[in-house]
Request: fold
Amino acid sequence: MKTSFLEFEQPIAELEAKIEQLRFVQDDSAVDISEEISRLDAKSQSLTKEIYAKLTPWQCALVARHPQRPYTLDYLSLVFTDFEELHGDRSYADDHAIVGGLARFNGQSCMVIGHQKGRDTKEKIQRNFGMPRPEGYRKALRLMRLAEKFGIPIFTFVDTPGAYPGIDAEERGQSEAIGRNLAVMTELKVPLIATVIGEGGSGGALAIAVADVVAMLQYSTYSVISPEGCASILWKSAERAGEAAETMGITAPRLKSLGLIDRIINEPVGGAHRDYRLVAQNVKKSLQEALKQLAGLSTSELIERRFERLMSYGRFKEQAIH
Amino acid sequence: MSWLQKLLPPKIKRSEGTRKSIPEGLWAKCPACEAVLYSTDLENNQNVCPKCAHHLRLRARARLDALLDPEGRFEIGTEVLPMDPLKFKDSKRYVDRLAAANEDTGEADAMVVMQGAIKTVPVVVACFEFEFLGGSMGAVVGERFVRGVKAAIELQSPFICITASGGARMQEGLFSLMQMAKTTAAVTQLAHHQLPFITLLTDPTMGGVSASFAFVGDVVIAEPGALIGFAGPRVIEQTVRETLPAGFQRAEFLIEKGAIDMIVDRRQLRDKLASLITLLQRVPAV
Reply:
């Protein structure tokens, strides 16, 4: 697959195009230019490293939305085995913006639930750009309860611009569906491990991300509102999204320092889409460690720990009353 | 111009143009039926238009005052005050916005929690103040809510939340999103003690407040005409590129779709809540 480059990656793109050209020439050339090619390759690598070392939050948001970024189903095939997809919410429809089902993680049964975006236009529409409707959240809830019934741990993968803001979604109770998930996940009797793999878009993300361990990929984002949305409300201009991204704090390192997430999963140089296998390995390692961290806890300890975590969110001043 | 408007002295005519939803001065105009009302009449009627029963917005303290018995009130969570964890700044600094909102409303944040009684039935009521930064939910709202729930459990009394909010407070970033999980988690504890959790959704109840605890109430009540939904009408219109049906996301629309239990006129609220609570708690009617 040919890598597609983002705007801020243009210098890398130019270099890569040059390398491509040289490779093409080399095939029917008498002169050996392989040295030149490897020199340029190294340069491209270091340039990528350099650019990615100082990504702005807004650029990070663009990487998180990269069209070639690995999605939930990619991790399902690279990290898990024996995936049995389960469909439908049993009352209205099967929402393709959320996928889920039973699988094995290192041979052990687990439930995997995640947002799913589409690759081509047709699939993007079928998956509604990863924006679930209420039936998607209700399917997720059904699968979580199923996992609880059989004592199976749950892994969720978060990657959505947000819950779908549509007429039908409102009619079928988008608010209720999200709120219900938050309530039920609070007391679910099995380990819940959430990983933000791309966009963590507000309530639509949180609805499958109330968890015992919350991890984020290095270049993923998690926010209360999209930078564009925030900018258009507070600055009255979506153009100021960069500033909004900066001030809101949406990147993994910032959120970790604020104590809002637990772990950061490293990505390959140039983003997860540059090397699916490598990022999948890192994700697997993170999930293993998270499971291990929770392994010693009894059910009541697990729930109590989760509840206390939820109660600890938020910063405020406390003043003695006179 | 109506014949009445023609009769009015010019001073009153001028006040029409300000389009304030909160009546100031002697006269107020009902935004629904355009009747010109004596402010005191409107206030005495809990901001419900005496002519057409349109429910205007009502401030948190006025609401609590009308809802709770005068005796035995105690405010909860006043010790919890806002701060600015992100040093957030758009066209204005968040701390300045907080200070201005405090100046305008006299409140420290967008939630007032009070323990008291409705027709002698003990309750804890958490009420959003929409005039404070659009009733947005940040850390203080979340924490006061949680302290209210804890007080309800200690007192073994039902917990009622009255919502009026545009959603999460953007200026607190992901902290505000987490208040959705925090508040919703807190109300699950009420069930362990068989204590009723009742929500009253008023105009407007949107976004992060709508999509958290609002619809997980044991009984979900809405006020007539209240706008209630996940996404705002403008966002939806921009997304689907069609005109929204008439009455979309209004309380009457929601009850038609099966999303809420009942619509209650503000003036009957005390009776209704007392009846529901005593029924749920299996005690004699009051």
